[in-house]
Fold this protein.
Amino acid sequence: MNKLDWYVLKSYVRPLLPTVGIMVFFFLMQMVWKYVDDLAGKGIEWYVLLELMMYWAASVVPFALPVSVLFASLLTFGNFGEHYEMAAMKSSGISLFRGIRSLIILNIGIAIGAFYFYNDVIPVANLKGQSLLINISKSKPAFHITPGIFYNGFEGYSIKIGEKSGDGEQELQDIYIYDHKENKKGNQKVLTAASGIMRTVANDQYLEIELHDGATYEDIVKADREERKKMPWARSEFDTAFIRFNLGGFDNPNLYKTRRRDFMMLNTQQLKLKADTLKDQMIEREANFKKNLTGKYKFDYIEPETADATDALRDDIMKNLLSGMRLRASQNAIRLARSNLDYLRQMDREMDWRNETRLRHWLEYYKKFALGVSVLIMFFIGAPLGSIIRKGGIGLPLVISTVAFLIFHVLNTTFEKMGREELMDPLIATWLPSMILAPIALWLTYSASTDKALISGEWFSTITARFYRKKDEK
């Protein structure tokens, strides 16, 4: 590798590395703002938050890498063109491809590395990040109680609050606590309060809620059946009461343990295996559905070939029944039809969900390969475009790279949604954005290597002359 290759390589890497960092930080902040209400001021250690953000940072690399390559190539070759370095290379007999030889090799390496990073590192980061987020919520149950939603984190209790306010969101309003420790199937005791204060006590071993202006409602279960029919209950009021929940069960020595692994936490081999398993499950479920539905309709209660009173059977089935049984038979038939209709709708929703899950696995499978190709396409768009526009600085490359990334992101999002909804094969849905942008990259590369302007004055004059000629003919 000679001095030219080293110079071009250093000129490209110098803006690439900070751009990757900036873009990762930009996408990371979007995830942080999404969970800021669940994380900020919750008493979580700073190093745990830092570790969680490291996992999130790894998961946003597929979004940051293509646009970073595009911006760095635009900036590098725009500076080359503005300072006539590209013209000096071409006047010395060095072609465009020879000048960017080192960058082509580098970006091929980046594309291969992006595949392995997406396939081996990101699934582990997603798994640990999601597990850490879930277990942080479990280890801090006092701060995971969401207004308007029942919280069932404490065994035997269901808690619902209206609002949270104050420093640390410890002041509660409209509190409902359902105690079903004695009766697992229902609520025999309900505690309500207008307001309360939530805090941890005894070295964070207990969650204590101080309740104000409340009442307790409790059903009294009698052994005698006649007494139970009277449905007795008791009500007691209080000005202040305390209730404590043991937090010992929330101590989790392994914050990264979880049973849930979705498609974003699997590599290519696991994705393919899981997609095939889901397909087999769909086939088996469909066969069981047909078998169950067929069993609900039986037309072989009477076999005319072996029946003694074959002549007594009539074409109208209802006329074979006694008049008193016809209404009951009709009601049973309507009830059975409605039940089967609900069963059909439920199975239709289930099969749609299973199929969408299977398609998501295939989409994620192909996306791991498409990332590396998108990196190369972005480079072959940015490098020739930068040498053509011959404009250095950050302004114009930033605008162009932003527009190009938005187009690429919209294409990816649109076709991925079509793939999930089975409007397009997952293979085509994943690769179609690259297939659309690849001809543009080839055209720009050809134009830059042959020193052809994208829109020349001669081309514009020809189009204008044709327009006025057709106008005169009319």
User: Anything to note?
Assistant: The beta strands are 157-160, 163-165, 171-179, 189-201, 206-219, 233-246. Residues 250-259, 299-304 have pLDDT under 50 and may be disordered.
